[in-house]
Design goal:
With 281 residues, the chain is of the alpha/beta class. The protein folds into 2 domains: 115 residues, Tetrapyrrole methylase, N-terminal domain (Cobalt-precorrin-4 Transmethylase, domain 1, 3-Layer(aba) Sandwich); 154 residues, 2-Layer Sandwich (Methyltransferase, Cobalt-precorrin-4 Transmethylase, Domain 2). It has 12 helices and 12 strands. The strands form 3 sheets. The chain has a 5-stranded parallel beta sheet, sandwiched between helices. Helix 2 links the parallel strand 2 and strand 3. The radius of gyration is 20 Å and the shape is globular. Its EC number is 2.1.1.314.
């Protein structure tokens, strides 16, 4: 049996009782650690915190293991119970859907234990989930790579009056350019990077300036989120220009570009407006 278990967003206690029972009866436990991270999992003792509560040794499954050695995980699941832990909900990333498909083709039984994810936790700001359009991912720009394919999706959402969730880039254990160009030697990895709300907005505005189609402007209302689901989560609403000046603190961050709003949404969103927060400080 392969159990794919959502861990939620905050800390080790966010696992469901069903999920914890599945972990404790599994012979092998893996945690996927590149599509997202628990808020505390960035620290060096995050893994041991999980192991202590769950009572199990946990193997970190990085990008290379999941994408290149998934068959090894599935092979173990053909003869024993294996738990594959995922931050958020199991189907928050296509990688996990692929794992289920491969498991079923091998005749491995799969059970999924759902949990909260960024896709529903963003509801905390008051914008109704059914009023969101297509979600977009914002990658880090480089000197030679500045993609803008997300622009059309945001533009379509805005024309329909829908909100847009922007998932911000997470780069964990990424091979360095020098390492990729080398034919020999041990792989070298870049330091972990987590996109901040301010970087996301800077890149969005750069693309708008280049495209000039008025999909959004620096005056467009957005909501910035940091560490959703944790005790110190931060939610701030304001214009893009205003949010550029906000220190959202440690990762993980995400951003919502606000579409048309109805009065109930406006009333809830008002609690998070930057001007109001500054007045309370």
């Amino acid at each position: 049996m392969l159990y794919i278990i959502g861990l939620g967003l905050g800390d080790e206690k966010d696992i469901t009782l069903r999920g914890l029972e599945a972990v404790q009866k599994s012979q092998k436990v893996f945690i996927e650690a590149y599509t997202s991270l628990l808020s505390f999992g960035i620290s060096s003792d995050g893994l041991s915190t999980l192991e202590k509560l769950y009572g199990k040794s946990i193997t970190v499954a990085d990008r290379e293991m999941v994408e290149e050695k998934a068959d090894d995980i599935l092979l173990e699941a053909t003869s024993s119970d294996v738990a594959f832990l995922v931050v958020g909900d199991p189907f928050g990333a296509t990688t996990h859907t692929d794992l289920v498909v491969r498991a079923k083709k091998l005749g491995v039984d799969v059970k999924v234990v759902h949990n909260a994810s960024v896709m529903n936790a963003i509801g905390v700001c008051g914008l109704q989930l059914y009023r969101y359009g297509e979600t977009v991912s914002l990658p880090f720009f480089t000197d030679t790579w500045r993609p803008d394919s997300f622009y059309e999706k945001i533009q379509r959402n805005r024309k329909l009056g829908l909100h847009t969730l922007c998932l911000l880039d997470i780069r964990v254990k990424e091979p360095s350019l020098e390492s990729l160009c080398s034919y020999r030697g041990k792989k070298q990895y870049e330091p972990p990077r987590f996109m901040a709300v301010s970087v996301a907005i800077e890149q969005l505005l750069e693309v708008e300036q280049m495209r000039g189609e008025n999909a959004y402007t620096e005056d467009t209302t957005c909501v910035g989120f940091a560490r959703l689901g944790s005790e110190d989560q931060l939610v701030v609403a304001g214009s893009m220009k205003q949010l550029l000046e906000v220190d959202f603190g440690p990762p993980l961050h995400c951003l919502v570009i606000v579409g048309d709003t109805h009065p109930v949404e406006e009333e809830m969103l008002d609690f998070y407006k930057l001007a109001k927060k500054q007045g309370q400080a």
